[in-house]
């Protein structure tokens, strides 16, 4: 099989982690007889520097013409002074909307070898955990009306949260379907005691739950969910929530796994094309120093193989390779967490994983 992949390296550490992941993808192609044709496009700050805009039309067209998209990271202090709609981060909202990607899957898995790297007590993570956060991606406060106005105390800014029943239903179905393929447990996170959007969210989720009687469903307020993730992460299987709440909770969950450098993500719509990226940022403080952890980007490739192309064995080959490398004691600096040991560089960790990938 031949697949067309759009590579969006972006800014900061984006280039080095995307290149590491692309090498793993090429290795999978060699082992399983696939051809992955990777074409780079500009996005974020590097696009601003090159063509004056964070999301060039050529990039959108290239992504639409591809079977899937692999993204690194965007942003950095160089562009912090720009207006909101001109900043590198605005390109993320734009490309998600252009590709119709409304479902964001963010798995938070504690690998057995990294239990000591988790900040939680050993007894809380002794059995490990495997949580899938399903985040709505193209609605909510990130896409609502915003601006500045004169208010009671002078100039004020506002951002508007809104959700339609249709938006809630489609992310809800994605979450229930994901739960059906796992342990059939789903937690919907909202703030229905305060927000009207959350009350509509909860009402719509309850109606959807009637169509999935096999799924053990519960509601949870977002503040309680944040506490419960730290108190007992093993209680969760699938979590579904809004754009902003999902953004925050998935970052919290990432730290429980040992490092934000471990969390991959998939952004999906109605078709098979998706955009795959780590949930961390561009890390400008270590950009160009070969210190980044490439694992989240490499695991994003595994998600691409599974969700966009239906290549389950190929995806497992990557995940098992990461597991073996971690079990062998290989660590990038972020995974050492102050412990003794020698940290591998980004390229060294990528090569370790590349060497460990075998046909399952």
Verbal overview:
The protein is an alpha/beta fold and 360 residues long. It contains 13 helices and twelve strands. The strands form two sheets. Strands 2-1-3-12-11-4-5-10-8-9 form a ten-stranded mixed sheet, sandwiched between helices. Helix 1 packs across helix 10, helix 6 crosses helix 7 and helix 8 packs parallel to helix 9. The longest helix has 19 residues. It starts with a strand and ends with a helix. The mean pLDDT is 94.
Distance between the termini: 18 Å
Output the structural class. alpha/beta
Give the uncertain stretches in residue-range form. Answer: none
DSSP E strands, number: 12
Number of helices: 13
This entry's quaternary arrangement is single chain
> Whole-number average pLDDT?
94
| Tertiary shape | globular
What topology, given as strand order, has the largest sheet? Answer: 2-1-3-12-11-4-5-10-8-9
Radius of gyration: 20 Å
Helix content: 40-55%
The fraction of residues in strands falls at 15-25%
């Amino acid at each position: 099989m031949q697949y067309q992949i759009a590579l969006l390296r972006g800014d900061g550490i984006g280039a080095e982690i995307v290149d590491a992941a692309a090498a793993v993808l090429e290795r999978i192609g060699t082992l399983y007889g696939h051809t992955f044709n990777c074409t780079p496009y500009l996005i974020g700050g590097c696009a601003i520097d090159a063509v004056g805009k964070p999301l060039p039309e050529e990039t959108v067209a290239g992504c639409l013409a591809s079977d899937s998209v692999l993204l690194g990271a965007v942003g950095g202090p160089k562009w912090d002074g720009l207006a909101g709609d001109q900043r590198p981060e605005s390109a993320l909202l734009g490309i998600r909307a252009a590709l119709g990607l409304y479902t964001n899957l963010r798995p938070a898995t504690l690998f057995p070898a990294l239990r000591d790297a988790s900040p939680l007590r050993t007894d809380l993570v002794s059995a490990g955990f495997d949580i899938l956060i399903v985040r709505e991606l193209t609605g909510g406060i990130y896409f609502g009306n915003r601006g500045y106005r004169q208010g009671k105390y002078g100039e004020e800014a506002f951002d508007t949260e809104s959700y339609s029943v249709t938006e809630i239903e489609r992310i809800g179905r994605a979450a229930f379907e994901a739960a059906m393929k796992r342990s059939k447990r789903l937690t919907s996170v909202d703030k229905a005691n305060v927000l009207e959007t959350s009350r509509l969210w909860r009402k719509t989720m309850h109606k959807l739950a009637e169509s999935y009687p096999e799924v053990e469903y519960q509601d949870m307020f977002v503040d309680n969910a944040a506490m419960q993730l730290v108190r007992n992460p093993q209680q969760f299987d699938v979590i579904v929530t809004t754009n902003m709440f999902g953004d925050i909770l998935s970052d919290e969950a990432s730290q429980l796994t040992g490092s934000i450098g471990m969390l991959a993500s998939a952004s999906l719509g109605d078709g098979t094309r998706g955009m795959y990226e780590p949930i961390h940022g561009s890390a400008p403080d270590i950009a160009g120093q070969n210190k980044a952890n490439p694992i989240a980007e490499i695991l994003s490739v595994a998600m691409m193989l599974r969700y966009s192309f239906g290549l389950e064995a190929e995806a497992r080959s990557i995940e098992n390779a990461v597991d073996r490398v971690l079990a062998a004691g290989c660590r990038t600096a972020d995974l050492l967490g102050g412990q003794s040991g020698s940290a591998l560089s980004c390229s060294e960790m990528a090569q370790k994983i590349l060497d460990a990938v075998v046909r399952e």
